[in-house]
């Protein structure tokens, strides 16, 4: 199953950025800038972006940690990582790691922040809970996990597409995501704060 999903994302990586550009309202990647700001990371910090895909969040994160910090982009798809490498190869602060986010290949307590944008909903089965456990293990004490996801769209057609995508993940999971995401996060983190982004189309959960 894992291999099939990786192959799917390898294929998707060939047109992912063009697909996102067709739908995005933040052509300049403003959403990932906002996500990076929410990390409160600063010079010298080590930050991890899981399910980094083509690496959209890596540039703004690297800007925060400056020349003394490190940003790690992790994904299990070699195709996605190849695209991320194309974007970030001139940035010495960025490293890319191929791994499953439910088994993070890092020591305990190393990251000043961990981010995940528009990917957590796509994790299957027990992977979500295992990933949260790994995130908590790898974060420095008191440091945040930032999860960015889509809000339910206002436009009727886009909303229909959003529901179709959720339902393709299975009815039970779709209901769980829509109704219980806050409950789910609060089960794992002591403090969970939701912020709606300026576009109104995405939300960021800050979890500590
Ligand atoms: C919708 S893309 C999001 C990419 C990026 N974060 C963004 O905001 O554009 C989801 C990404 O999650 C990755 N992914 C899915 N399941 C994963 C897993 N179990 N471990 C690591 N990466 C995974 C996929 O390969 C894909 O690159």
TrEMBL record:
UniProt-listed InterPro entries: Methyltransf_25, SAM-dependent_MTases_sf
UniProt domain Methyltransferase: residue ranges: 47-142
Entries under CDD domains matching the protein: AdoMet_MTases
Entry-linked SUPFAM superfamilies: S-adenosyl-L-methionine-dependent methyltransferases (SSF53335)
Single GO term (MF): methyltransferase activity
PANTHER family: 2-METHOXY-6-POLYPRENYL-1,4-BENZOQUINOL METHYLASE, MITOCHONDRIAL, METHYLTRANSFERASE
Protein name stated in the entry: Methyltransferase domain-containing protein
């Amino acid at each position: 199953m894992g291999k099939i999903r990786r192959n799917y994302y390898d294929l998707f990586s060939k047109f992912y950025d063009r697909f996102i550009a067709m739908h995005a309202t933040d052509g300049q990647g403003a959403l990932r800038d906002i996500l990076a700001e929410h990390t409160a990371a600063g010079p010298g910090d080590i930050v991890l972006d899981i399910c980094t895909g083509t690496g959209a969040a890596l540039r703004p994160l690297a800007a925060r940690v400056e020349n003394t910090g490190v940003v790690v982009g992790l994904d299990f798809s070699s195709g996605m990582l190849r695209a991320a490498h194309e974007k970030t190869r001139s940035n010495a602060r960025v490293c890319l790691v191929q791994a499953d986010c439910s088994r993070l290949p890092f020591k305990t307590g190393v990251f000043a922040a961990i981010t995940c944008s528009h990917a957590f909903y796509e994790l299957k089965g027990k992977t979500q809970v295992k990933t949260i456990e790994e995130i908590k293990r790898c974060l420095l004490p008191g440091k945040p996990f930032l999860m960015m996801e889509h809000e339910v769209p206002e436009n009727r057609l886009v909303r229909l597409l959003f529901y179709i995508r959720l339902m393709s993940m299975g009815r039970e999971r779709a209901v769980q995501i829509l109704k219980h995401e806050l409950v789910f996060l609060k089960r794992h983190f002591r403090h969970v704060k939701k912020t709606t982004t300026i576009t109104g189309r995405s939300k960021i959960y800050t979890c500590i």
